[in-house]
Write a structure and sequence with these properties.
The chain is mainly alpha-helical. It has 17 helices and no strands. GO terms for molecular function: transmembrane transporter activity.
Length: 412
Amino acid sequence: MHWMITGISIPILVLLFQSRGLSLQDIGFVMAVWVGSTALLEVPLGGVADRYGRKTTYLLSLLVNIMGCCVLFYAAGLGPLLVAALFLGASRAIYSGTLDAWFYDSFQLCLVADSDNLGRTLTFHKAQAWVNISVTVGLAAGSVFGGWLPDYMASSGVEIASIYDANIAVVIAANIVLLAITLRLINEAGDQGHSVQAEFMCFRTSFGVITKAFSHAVIRRLMQTTIVYGAVLSSVETFWQPYLLGVMQHSAGTNVGVDNITAFGVIAGLYFFMSSLSSLCSIRLLTFVGGSHKTLLFATRLFSGAVLIMMANSSDTMSFSALYLLFFFCFTLGNSSQSVLINDNTEARHRSTMLSVSSLMVTSGAVCASLLFGVVSEHYGISLSWVMCGVGLMASSVLFVFMPEQRELATR
């Protein structure tokens, strides 16, 4: 449900920014503030989740998200949009690590309770793959709906300032429903204190986990490659909509406007379908490479970089769509393996914090990409930005070669 709501704004977000008069450089700046606010709050709020409780932290993130969407709904210029981006980035930072850590701990409890049966049939890698499928199905459903909604608003004759505003209004209402459902259905045991001393311990724990992340033989390489992963992800997600619009206009041979947002929603939905399919295929592929997570990560990141370079040179709608979907299929094949390596190399009491450190690396790369590639795309074209990203992704994949293959990992 969480990711379905997130998906509603994905097909139209950059188009909404452009409809409010923003250039590609302005959009890059807004996205830099968005992911930058996430980066600044990522790690300390990960520690808060470990100490004060994941349910409380997650509910707070929904409230902040609702506030950000309300600002976004009424924002008309760069300044208000930056404020909205600040709220939405903070919301992402607040819930980062809570859901994944919650699931991992619950999974381990299930193994202990039913070790004779569950342990023989389900590994965490397989379980994580199914979680990724649930996430991507939600994102796909939300994206298809989010692409259809503006077309429906345009054809229905409903009086609204922008056809994209309906998406934001639906996200606000859906988040309120999700907040109520979480309050009702989720129970979290444990008594968390809220003293000043406890807060200080949260920050100290966070910085201790950062130190471990960059000294641990396995996690250090994961964090280094995750920075590049975040930069590439941000560049593709930010600029695929204006790039596709340009391709569609070129194919039509005229300067047509955006009159079929449903197509953007369908492509976004298919992207998440490919990501879900890659989670299923990763189970078989991991077996094919002898259970080596680092080999899987190396091969998939290397190939996805090559596909991104080809995508940057696509000139018609069909070839772009095919390469876009192939890119994300390859790009996400190693996500379950990365999750396994991070969780298995992290103590349970620091798991939310370490996952937040990982998200910090993603957002740090995204901030750099938004600032750099916003300028590059505005003045030299989106294609050059994507070629640079593809080369960087292929180069960073080599780091996995130097990562030790640890099969017996101390996690308790």
